[in-house]
Design brief:
three-stranded mixed sheet; alpha+beta
């Protein structure tokens, strides 16, 4: 099974974050988003990951990207308004149906020594 960086596993689930150099987990305040079922959209998400992880073999039912890889316009207006203007975090963060990830991690996550 393909693994994301830093094992890519979110705590308490089988979901694996697959973007290169992304060390986020669901405990970091990001939302997780599994790959879409629509073949054309899934291909775009897969292409996004392969830009930085050329050897990645592809998605599984557990593959996901975190919200940090999506621009603000990928989220519904109401959620953006609640988060940005009112400081309210929605109970469930969703993406627009046509959302495509565009934000890659700029640098690899730092690895702290024990």
């Amino acid at each position: 099974m393909p693994r994301g960086d830093r094992e890519g596993k979110s705590k308490g689930s089988g979901i694996r974050f697959v973007a290169a150099n992304c060390g986020n987990t669901n405990t970091d305040g990001v939302s997780l988003h599994t790959f879409p079922k629509d073949a054309a959209l899934r291909k775009k998400w897969t292409g996004f990951v392969k830009l930085k992880r050329g050897a990645w073999v592809g998605t599984t039912e557990y593959s996901a990207l975190c919200s940090a890889h999506f621009s603000a316009d990928c989220f519904p207006f109401r959620q953006r308004f609640e988060m940005e203007q009112m400081g309210i975090k929605p109970k469930k963060v969703t993406l627009n149906p046509d959302a495509i990830p565009t934000i890659h991690a700029l640098t690899p996550p730092s690895i702290s020594s024990p």
